[in-house]
Structures are given as structure tokens and as C-alpha cells.
Design a protein that fits this description.
It is globular, with a radius of gyration of 29 Å. It is an alpha+beta fold. Helices cover 27% and strands 21% of the residues. It has a five-stranded mixed β-sheet. A three-stranded mixed β-sheet has the order 1-5-8, with no helix packed on it. Bound molecules: 2-acetamido-2-deoxy-beta-D-glucopyranose (7 copies). Pfam families: Cu_bind_like.
């Protein structure tokens, strides 16, 4: 490999690293809005998704107001129903809780953290917005994977607390290792008390 090729490779890796994650502004300039007078959404979201790729760690930025909601679901049935009525907390998430006042400007940033089909819709106006176009699905691919900031480590495995500690009256099988440790423990305790007397 010529040195120039190496350099090109390094530069390519550098650029890829810098631009690894993308913020996608949903609907572009048109945003995430619905006009109840014409029953139309502000953008054609299927067309908007068509020529871009969505990868783990990217964000979808919804420029909207509190007349619309932002629901993320991984469940196609929930998506098709335009409602969260029968949805599960484990596969469907609302990003619009809190503000009860109509028409307040709102920006919602949704990180893409699960590969495969991700569906978005507004469940406002009893599903009318969703039924009339305020909805879309994307396929999230792996890309370079989640950044550490979005990659929650799994909780440590559950460890059974010791049952043969000092003061415990739990009967233990004579042959068990736990009991041997208990004996050693008591021996050390006794030694400690004994040594105290020697001082
Ligand atoms: C993308 O959006 C997230 C969430 O709002 C933000 O923390 C991050 O700085 C944005 N990245 C860029 C490159 O704009
Ligand atoms: C797709 O990308 C092309 C070129 O980047 C752009 O001109 C076009 O408007 C895009 N289409 C949509 C629906 O965003
Ligand atoms: C998807 O959601 C529907 C309710 O909207 C529920 O009946 C169904 O069990 C869910 N599917 C999965 C795979 O969890
Ligand atoms: C939720 O489930 C009930 C009972 O099965 C059903 O009548 C209703 O249509 C469902 N709602 C939606 C939005 O799927
Ligand atoms: C939001 O909805 C309320 C009630 O339907 C309406 O009066 C208001 O004009 C809407 N605001 C915007 C910014 O769409
Ligand atoms: C909007 O669509 C809903 C059904 O999706 C309908 O009930 C309502 O009358 C429509 N409103 C207008 C202004 O067309
Ligand atoms: C999503 O993209 C992956 C990788 O390109 C592909 O294997 C998979 O079939 C796609 N899934 C859907 C539902 O389009």
C-alpha cells in the first residue's frame, strides 16, 4: 500500500468519526405540524424519509408545537392504530408529556437507540392527525453503533447476599463451603479477641 493510500484511509476514518451521527430535522423546514382546517400535515413524511439513512445514535428533531404529539413505537400494530390506547410501556414512548396548553412551540429530540423498524406518529385529535399523514416509519441500521452517552450498561448481575454472617441462625449443611468459611471467620474473630488480650 502506498503511503498516500494510508493517508487517505486515515483521513477517511477521521471524517467518518466526526460525522458518525446525524440529526435529522423531521419534514425539513416544514416541521411536524398539522392543519386541522384542511386536514393536512405540513410535509409528506414518506417522501422525506425516502432518501436518507437512519443509524443508531442519530437523532430525529421534531420542530412542532403542543397541538401535535410525538409517539415512538416499535410495534407496527400500535402504529397502524394511530393510538396508544392498547400499547405497552415497553415498546411505545410518548415524548410530549407535560404541557397542557395548546399551540406552545416545542422541539422534541428523539435518539434512535434500537435497530430495525421505528414508527413515529401524533396521537393528538383522537388519531385524526395520524390518519391524515402525521405518521411515518423508518428502518434504523447499525451504522457505527450507539455512542457511550446513549449506551446504558446493563445492571450488574444479582448476587445472593451472604446468609451465614455473624448473628445468623440459618442452619447450614456441615459439608458446605459456606460453613467452612463461617468456621474460618469465627476462628479469625476469636483470634482477634485473643490477640487483644495479649496487648
Ligand atoms: C443533535 O441533537 C442532540 C439532541 O438535541 C444534541 O444534543 C446534539 O448536540 C445535536 N448534534 C448536532 C451535531 O447538532
Ligand atoms: C432527496 O435528495 C435530493 C438530493 O439531495 C434532493 O434534491 C431531494 O429534494 C430529496 N428528496 C426529498 C423528498 O427530500
Ligand atoms: C403490539 O401492540 C398491540 C396493541 O397495540 C398488542 O396487542 C400486541 O401484543 C403488541 N405486539 C407485540 C409483539 O408486543
Ligand atoms: C383496544 O382494545 C379494545 C379491546 O380489545 C378494542 O375495542 C379497541 O378497538 C382497541 N383500540 C385500538 C386503538 O386498537
Ligand atoms: C392549536 O390548537 C388550538 C385548539 O384547537 C387552536 O386554537 C390553535 O390555533 C392551535 N395553534 C396552532 C399554533 O396551531
Ligand atoms: C378531518 O378528517 C376526519 C377523519 O379523519 C374527519 O372526521 C373530519 O371531518 C375532517 N375535517 C376536515 C376539516 O376535513
Ligand atoms: C432494515 O435494514 C436492514 C439493513 O439494511 C435490512 O437487512 C432489513 O431487512 C431492513 N428491515 C426492514 C424492515 O426494512
Amino acid at each position: 500500500m502506498a503511503p498516500v493510500t494510508h493517508l487517505t484511509l486515515i483521513i477517511a476514518v477521521f471524517i467518518t468519526g466526526v460525522t458518525a451521527y446525524t440529526n435529522h430535522t423531521v419534514g425539513g423546514k416544514a416541521g411536524w405540524l398539522f392543519d386541522p382546517n384542511t386536514n393536512t400535515s405540513s410535509a409528506d413524511y414518506a417522501a422525506w424519509t425516502a432518501n436518507q439513512t437512519f443509524e443508531l445514535g442519530d437523532y430525529l428533531i421534531f420542530n412542532t408545537n403542543t397541538n401535535q404529539t410525538v409517539i415512538l413505537t416499535y410495534n407496527e400494530t400500535t402504529y397502524r392504530s394511530c393510538s396508544i390506547d392498547n400499547s405497552s410501556d415497553t415498546d411505545t414512548f410518548s415524548y410530549s408529556q407535560g404541557n397542557q396548553e395548546f399551540g406552545q412551540p416545542l422541539t422534541v429530540a428523539v435518539p434512535l437507540t434500537i435497530e430495525g423498524p421505528n414508527y413515529f406518529f401524533s396521537d393528538a385529535s383522537d388519531g385524526v392527525q395520524c390518519l391524515n399523514g402525521l405518521a411515518f416509519g423508518i428502518n434504523v441500521t447499525h451504522g457505527v453503533g450507539l455512542p457511550p452517552s446513549l449506551n446504558q450498561p446493563p445492571p450488574p448481575p444479582y448476587v445472593e447476599p451472604p446468609t451465614n454472617g455473624v448473628g445468623s441462625v440459618t442452619p447450614v449443611d456441615e459439608s458446605s463451603g459456606a460453613n467452612v468459611r463461617g468456621v474460618v471467620c469465627y476462628a479469625l474473630m476469636f483470634c482477634g479477641v485473643f490477640c487483644l488480650f495479649l496487648v
